[in-house]
Amino acid sequence: MRSAKDFFRPLAVGAPEPLREVPFRPSRMIHFFDPGNEKMAAKVPALAPAVDVLLGNLEDAVPSDRKEAARTGLVAVAKGTDFGGTQLWTRINSLDSPWALDDLLTLVTEIGDRLDVVMVPKVEGAHDIHYVDRLLAQLEARAGLRRPILVHAILETAAGVANVEEIAGASPRMQGISLGPADLAASRRMKTTRVGGGHPGYLVREDPPSASGGGSPADAPRATYQQDLWHYTLARMVDACAAHGILPYYGPFGDIQDVTACEDQFRNAFLLGCVGAWSLHPAQIAIAKRVFSPAPEDVAWARRVIGAMGDGTGAVMIDGKMQDDATYKQCQVVAGLADTLAARDPELAEAYAAAWKAGRR
Fold first, then answer.
1. Do 13 and 327 touch, CB atoms closer than 8 A?
2. Dihedral through CA 226, CA 229, CA 230, CA 232, nearest 10?
3. Interior/surface letters 115-154, b for 16+ CB within 10 angstroms, e for the rest
4. Which residues contact 327 (CB under 8 A, 6 or more apart)?
5. What is the pLDDT of residues 32-53, one digit of tens each?
6. Per residue, what are the HEC states of 78-128?
7. Max Cα separation, the chain?
8. According to the model, what pLDDT value does residue 209 have?
9. Is the pLDDT of residue 211 over 80?
10. Is 217's pLDDT higher than 60?
11. What is the C-alpha separation between 144 and 109, in angstroms, rounded?
12. Around Cβ 198, how many Cβ atoms within 10 Å?
């Protein structure tokens, strides 16, 4: 076991110093693209200003005979694009594949100075992160990088869920964790073929009239309520991330056409504590931007509470509602996120300012 004193020392001679705190940068949507698809790659420069994160995908959605082309394409996109304030991430191939090692060797050596985060699929324990951690340090030293590349894990196996707390705290490089519902469903032998979202068969049914004391016939229709297959896993992941100072994300929502359900699923994740989600199609970019940005009226209320609470101690009544140190902290979360997002998004900054002005009249 490594000493706590060694945790923040580079794992290779000449590698950059590990970060002591994950920098919070807007990442409401992690937008996936196939860098081996020339048409898709050509759209990246125009797409970059519209998203918080662009992710060059090298894994599952790329056929085995196009893996090298995707890797080469990502290098070309990274070298030829001005990303501005948009982050560039990549999802490498799984660590048990024949491509993962070459993914890291090529990308860190050739575009490591432009790469913010490496997303690692199917992480099952701290040992997977330790392997990537050491290898990245060696490659950073070879490439002469001055800042460490961060690591993002995907939670998509039963073993990964069982070990999510140790994964979250496995390295100072850990930036965050995403829920990967499709592979996780297969790993658990869940009987759903959907990519994220609910399932009509996963429900609760109201009690029969006889049990509730009603006068309706025993065979009268009884209301059903669809439940969320992913609530337990997402909540556990959020707790693990919060405990270790890293960021939680919802993963993909596969039904591109069902924008209503996508927005509902993203909002559930946002309310639980996630900071963003994956976008697989341009239609989902606007949904993620809207959902993972606090509503202007909520921001105005949070700032009102903060202003009334002073140093955050004691209790006050505002519009008939008690506010104390706990609600003060809740409001700081909302207002702090709004300030960070507004610094990147002028339209959002204007909306927040207008809501605040209207609320003070």
1. no
2. 100
3. bbbbbbbbbbbbebbeebbebbbbbbbebebeebbbbbbb
4. 305
5. 999 999 999 999 999 999 999 9
6. HHHCCCCCCEEEEECCCCCCCCHHHHHHHHHHHHCCCCCEEEECCCCCHHH
7. 78
8. 79
9. no
10. yes
11. 9
12. 19
Residue 120 is encoded by which pair of tokens? 């690692």
**Looking at the predicted structure, is the pLDDT value of residue 21 above 60?**
yes
d(CA 237, CA 14) in angstroms, rounded, equals: 33
- Residue 315 token pair: 């209790």
Q: Scan for tokens 């996780």, then name that residue.
A: 184
In this structure, what token pair is assigned to residue 206? 């109201």
Cβ-based neighbours of 248, under 8 Å, separated by 6 or more: 176, 177, 178, 234, 237, 238, 241, 242, 273, 274, 275
Looking at the DSSP bridge assignments, the partners of residue 150 are 117
Kindly report, residue by residue over 251-284, the tens digit of the pLDDT. 999 999 999 999 999 999 999 999 999 999 999 9
> Looking at the predicted structure, is the pLDDT value of residue 360 above 80?
no
In single-letter form, the type of residue at position 351 comes to A
Euclidean distance between CA atoms 16 and 29, whole angstroms: 28
Can you tell me which residue has the tokens 């100075």?
Answer: 113
CA 199 – CA 195 distance, rounded (Å): 10
User: One-letter amino acid identity for 244?
Assistant: H
pLDDT digits (tens, 9 = 90+) for 284-306: 999 999 999 999 999 999 999 99
Predicted TM-score (pTM) of this structure: 0.93
The Cα 197–Cα 174 span in angstroms is 26
